[in-house]
Amino acid sequence: MTPRNCRPVHLPDPVPVPEPEPEPAAGCDVCAALAQQRAVARAVGDMTTVIDRNVEIRRHPHAKAVRT
């Protein structure tokens, strides 16, 4: 069997640079619960749930201040 003369393949890092974690909205019980779930998930090393809770906090609707 003849050895192949192949060059190594360099793949880019598949993990994107993480965004800063969203802060729960002040006074929002839903955001507070999601942040608590995120903290528990992080404590047990469940990073999939941490990411899921971050997405939910970012997408949770809150009234935007109206500019006048």
Descriptive notes:
This protein is mainly alpha-helical. Helix content is 41%, strand content 0%. The protein contains two helices and no strands. It has helices spanning 29-43, 47-59. The termini are far apart. The model has no long low-confidence stretch (mean pLDDT 85).
Strand and helix map with partners:
Elements: H1 29-43, H2 47-59
Order of helices and strands: HH
Radius of gyration: 21 Å
Low-pLDDT stretches: none
Name the overall outline: elongated
List keywords for this structure.
mainly alpha; 2 helices
Summarize the structure.
The chain has 68 residues and is mainly α. Helix content is 41%, strand content 0%.
